[in-house]
Design goal:
It comes from Micromonospora vinacea. Belongs to the ROK (NagC/XylR) family. It holds the Pfam family ROK. This is NBD/HSP70 family sugar kinase. The protein is built from 14 helices and 16 strands. The strands form four sheets. A five-stranded mixed sheet has the order 6-5-4-7-11, sandwiched between helices. Strands 14-13-12-15-16 form a five-stranded mixed sheet, sandwiched between helices. About 40% of the residues lie in helices and about 20% in strands. The protein is α/β, with parallel strands linked by helices. The two termini are about 35 Å apart.
Length: about 400
């Protein structure tokens, strides 16, 4: 017979549950925590005292209650003092941010990224941005970790980027390279950009409260973050969600992954620009120019957008049939394409998806916008703290 959890285990779980609630939902009264967590008032008081003692939360009276009687104390995350670094390695840019407990973006830096820049070359640039931000960090602040969002297939065990066709990366150790450059003794967790963006939108964005979510992220390629039953679905090695490499055309065009006829050859950057007669252009601004031209009546641009929208709806219908999500979120360039071709996408989705799977699906754009990958990368870093709040530096 397996022994039950010890008192220390229960205490650690309760501390984590309380801190996670405040981290995700923000300032919360003790009375609300008592109801939400199902614990008595004295236990909530003891837990908040423990978290306050190590500087993770603070307590104070509410500004106004509008009620008679003694107000319940409000528990707030110490966002300015407890933070994580977040990085996003994208096709055309690098981003770094310092994000406080509770999800507040405290500082950020954006850098251009020449295409073809490898991890060993990107790491010093990201580290330089972090060193600039470190100059503004309070002396008593605590860095609990760092998270990296990358366009590519990321091995869960060690964060190695096995393949990033759109970034040109093959077996790139971005986490190790950053650790060497930064010289800070905190764990660095690496994740796929679509996966961490889905994580962020599920925790504190448009998909909060939804347990089954697809987040489609586009740039040159297309990937998906999948939340199933309230949990991230990343596959055995961490490589799940490579929906851009679904085969949709038997004799289709070559893909950067080495195959042919992949979904992203039709809805990704190269496919849409080629269809619009702008194969020499590249980048998000070039895509936005196509959408603008279509909106102004350019016939070729309209055809390109309509075709891409039809293919996007085709693929989404297949994914809806497989995963039965409550919500599909369109991020990155997929957001731009969705907004430009929503009618086409919905038409294809309605004709191809199974009625039972389609009944409750909502199509949305990210509430967190372009910050979703950064906030998601920070959430990866905060996970260790939330699992054991008293094991803080």
């Amino acid at each position: 017979m397996r022994p039950g959890p010890s008192q220390d285990d229960v205490r650690r779980q309760n501390l984590g549950a309380l801190l996670r609630h405040v981290h995700v939902h923000g300032a919360t009264t003790r009375a609300e925590l008592t109801t939400t967590l199902g614990l008595n008032r004295s236990t909530i008081g003891a837990l908040t005292a423990d978290l306050s003692a190590v500087g993770l939360v603070s307590e104070g009276a509410p500004k106004e209650t509008g009620r008679a009687g003694r107000p319940s104390l409000v528990v707030r995350p110490e966002s300015a003092r407890v933070y994580a670094y977040a990085y996003s390695v994208e096709v055309d840019r690098l981003r770094a941010a310092r994000i406080g407990l509770g999800g507040a973006v405290l500082d950020r830096r954006d850098l251009d990224r020449p295409r073809g820049l490898l991890a060993a070359e990107a790491a010093p640039l990201l580290a330089g941005a972090v060193k600039e931000m470190q100059q503004l960090v309070p002396a008593d602040a605590i860095c609990v970790g760092a998270g990296v969002a990358v366009c590519g297939m990321v091995r869960r065990d060690d964060g190695l980027v096995r393949l990033g066709p759109t970034t040109g990366w093959v077996d790139e150790p971005i986490g190790a390279a950053l650790a060497d450059e930064l010289g800070i003794d905190v764990p660095i967790t690496v994740g796929n950009v679509a996966d961490v963006a889905a994580f962020a939108e599920h925790a504190r964005g448009v998909a909060a409260g939804c347990d089954n979510v697809l987040y489609l992220y586009g740039d040159v390629g297309v990937g998906a973050g999948i939340i199933a039953g309230g949990r991230r679905l990343t596959g055995h090695g961490g490589y799940g969600g490579e929906v851009g490499h679904m085969k949709v055309a038997r004799d289709g065009r070559p893909c950067e992954c080495g195959s042919r006829g992949c979904w992203e050859t039709e809805i990704g950057e190269h496919g849409l620009l080629r269809a619009a007669g702008r194969s020499d252009a590249r980048g998000r601004e070039a895509l936005l120019a196509v959408f603008d031209a279509a909106d102004r009546g350019d016939a070729r641009a309209q055809t390109a957008v309509r075709q891409a929208g039809d293919w996007l709806g085709f693929g989404v219908a297949n994914l809806v049939n497989v995963f039965n999500p409550e919500m599909v979120i369109f991020g990155g360039t997929m957001r731009d394409l969705y907004l430009a071709a929503a009618a086409q996408i919905r038409s294809r989705l309605n004709s191809n998806a199974l009625g039972a799977c389609l009944e409750h699906v909502r199509l949305r754009t990210p509430k967190l916008g372009e910050d979703a990958p950064l906030i998601g990368a920070a959430e990866l870093a905060f996970e260790r703290l939330l699992a054991d709040p008293l094991d803080v530096g």
